[in-house]
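Q: For a teaching handout, I want to show students what a protein-ligand complex looks like in token form. Below are the inputs, and the small molecule is 1,3-dihydroxyacetonephosphate. Please produce the holo structure.
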Amino acid sequence: ERKPLIAGNWKMNNNHLEAIALVQKLAFALDAADYDRAEVVVLPPFTDLRSVQTLVDGDKLSIGYGAQDISRHEKGAYTGEVSGPMLAKLGCSYVLAGHSERREYHAEDDALVNAKVKAAFAHAITPILCVGEGLEVRKASNHVAHTAEQVRKAVDGLTAEQVERLVVAYEPVWAIGTGEVATPDDAQEVCGAAVRSTLADLYDEATAARTRVLYGGSVKPDNIAGIMDMADIDGALVGGASLKADDFAKLVRLG
Ligand code: 13P
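A: Here is the structure, written as tokens, with 1,3-dihydroxyacetonephosphate included.
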């Protein structure tokens, strides 16, 4: 009942012309059976969103899209920020919250991530909450407790209905952009014991059973199948491999 979600986080890549070309190639590479198998979503930079919207609407593409960040504020004197209402107006269905690169380079803490998750829900945008441990935490075998704590803080104050719609992406920081993918068992351990179990504790089993949990970190066509076979993994959040239409289409097909 949890439809797989394959989401491409483009990070800071592709201007709006490149964005149009990539989405066109992706649309060409995917067919109806692919969209039946999985929900396909791209997360381009803010400056690309209008172009992607125009293409998706004009050609009635089944590709969803969203943003990589959202302001916790609704409007006002917040130079450089982009609000939930702006993203909703552009047709964004998803937004990342708490990506490790935002946590690390922009000092986003769990309280801010929680506020961004709430800002997304306030405008009917589905947050993709990113959690996951760094290498030191992994080496100390604290990855489950660490990630569970991030989940607990990020969902504080959400209703059960919101948690059912929430997407959580487990992205171990040591596996991002390094080519070092977590083993399927390692990914399952955290997606199950840290993410879904925590939601079941805070809400209930039925609610937690509806939340989609993704794995992210060096997902490629040759490793996605083993990861997606795991009981608590419902999709992938893909960085590098989402920048090539053929690879991304393969991920949709193999995942
Ligand atoms: P890579 O797939 O490039 O490792 O990036 C993962 C990621 O951070 C997606 O959000």
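A: Two things your students might notice: Residues 9, 99, 171, 176-177, 216-219, 237-241 surround 1,3-dihydroxyacetonephosphate (CB under 6 Å). The first strand starts at residue 5 and ends at 9.
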